[in-house]
Amino acid sequence: MLIPYSELFTAFQSILLSRGFSNEKASLSAKLFADASLDGVNSHGINRFPAHVKDIDDGIINPYAEPVLTGSNVTLERFNGNLGPGNLNAWFCMNRAIDLAYRYEIGCVALNNTNHWLRAGNYGWLAAGKGCLGICFTNTIPNMPPWGGKDPRIGNNPIVIAVPGDNEEHLVLDMATSQYAYGKLQLYEMEGKDLPYAGGFDIKGSLTTKPSEIIKSQRVLPIGLWKGSGLTMMLDLLAACLSGGNATRDIGQKGREYALSQVFIAFRPAFENAHDFMISKRNELVEFIKSSNLSEENSEILYPGERALTKRKRNLISGIPVNDNAWKTIRDLI
Amino acid sequence: MLIPYSELFTAFQSILLSRGFSNEKASLSAKLFADASLDGVNSHGINRFPAHVKDIDDGIINPYAEPVLTGSNVTLERFNGNLGPGNLNAWFCMNRAIDLAYRYEIGCVALNNTNHWLRAGNYGWLAAGKGCLGICFTNTIPNMPPWGGKDPRIGNNPIVIAVPGDNEEHLVLDMATSQYAYGKLQLYEMEGKDLPYAGGFDIKGSLTTKPSEIIKSQRVLPIGLWKGSGLTMMLDLLAACLSGGNATRDIGQKGREYALSQVFIAFRPAFENAHDFMISKRNELVEFIKSSNLSEENSEILYPGERALTKRKRNLISGIPVNDNAWKTIRDLI
């Protein structure tokens, strides 16, 4: 079914208000959840919202907590998230990084003791929307085997990189370091489909496109095989070491995923005509990649974030496609 | 054959001196080339050296040029590499980032108009050796098709991330964003072997492990398929926009690979006991990943940089394994 943005927003908002969120926090969190669904990321929008409310009800997320500055050094700041709502903490920290970038061309905020930031891309769109280059990444529970191993020892630590464009046509990369998220595997399994490309190993150690085999083995594939395995280790250590917070290993010892470490970096280059320069580099890249011959007759060459913007424009007009049951679950929470 | 480090170093040094390098520059560049081979990266060590000398002889690399500061803002500096030797420029810039990190916990140096930095990992080992977290990345000529396309429109832009450890046991990720470098494909082809995993598309658009098919199609695979395709676009734009330099598209228009853009970031967290904290997070991660069951009886779980350090220790004692012809080529240059 199709739900107007405002209706989704209002539903989220009223539920959060009922859970003790202040007006301001309920509105911001509702916006971030609704934005995720608006951009086609229901997995971290409407579909995730009930679990988020459960985390609040279980005391994993403290709706009253605020991030507190624990250290600063000109362009670098360190915050304790105090286990507040992960999306609000992340929004706050990217905004701080942007403020610093407006003053110093670069701002870096490291955050520990926070919760799942939900839709990662939101913080990239925020930075680009303010004319900044943005980078952020988070660690997670151990949910992926390291290359050469078969037990979960590394996270699929998402990373976001954003570059501003005109008319909201920012480039926003929003990716986990696993080839497919577990949510995506479940979706393919529900639909009885194979993955288009190998997404993990089966129980015998062979690469497979069968989602059920991967869910059974829990051996999802890092992007780029050994390369993504290494990359995600490094993102984890950067987040933990910069914030003085938990690494993936520590989070795994908690049983549930909380008290994460994250890093937010914004850049606002200030050489002469830097903004125009960025826009032209962005435009030239997009034009250049699209000038390639297609690999298949019906393939598309997209820039990172292009699909999200297309969906956003369409869904704003025609409503956001959501699962009937998901919407019923939300209304039952009101 | 096996060549002692000092002999390799001296050969490189004397050739560079003959090309107009100052004593200091010849020694540093010779060290960086020899270090690459010492760590087992002959592709950017001895095997690359003759092409480097040719670039000098052709005037692509100016041995007399120095990086010049073009802008600075507390923790961010911007340099013009003036088409000097790429390895010396990169070494200089990572050192500047480290100096800034010693003062401000973070330092970021953006460099434009530079040459190929040769062995990327060197700058990560440098940062970690000085107790810093390090990140650096570069763009390249277009050498990979974007996802959905079949013509080269994106670079395989290498990225390095480093985390310090005790006793030189740093974690240093050094990876290009293609699954296999062209050099690696050629190596497999020469040896008549298939790749262990798909490395690109054949001329018909099917994933293949045949190196010759990929060399024919020029369609190498980005790490993580569409994800690495997006990631490498973002690294390119970050490097170009922060340095005010060329993007991959611009470099492609030059015909030869020069006037690249690069970024160097160093962090030296200064919260209480930060250094010990970093070392313990590093040690815990290594212990944790190695505690996984192996995926196959003879597989190994390695941390990024582990293999390089093992080779370094061995090669320092027993000499550096190099190809006979490669060594002859070097001696002919003296």
Task: Set down the secondary structure blueprint.
The structure is a homodimer of 334-residue chains.
Chain A: E1 2-3, H1 5-18, H2 23-38, H3 49-57, E2 68-73, E3 76-80, H4 86-104, E4 106-114, H5 121-129, E5 133-138, E6 159-163, E7 171-175, H6 182-190, E8 200-201, E9 207-208, H7 211-217, H8 226-243, H9 248-252, E10 260-267, H10 274-290, H11 306-318, E11 320-321, H12 324-333
Parallel strand pairs in A: 3-4
Antiparallel strand pairs in A: 1-11, 2-3, 4-10, 5-6, 5-10, 6-7, 8-9
What does this structure look like?
Two copies of one chain form a homodimer. With 334 residues, chain A is of the alpha+beta class. Chain A is 44% helix and 16% strand. Chain A contains twelve helices and eleven strands. In chain A, α1 runs antiparallel to α2 and α6 (182-190) crosses α7 (211-217). At the A-B interface, β2, β4, β6, β7 and α8 of A face β2, β4, β6, β7 and α8 of B.
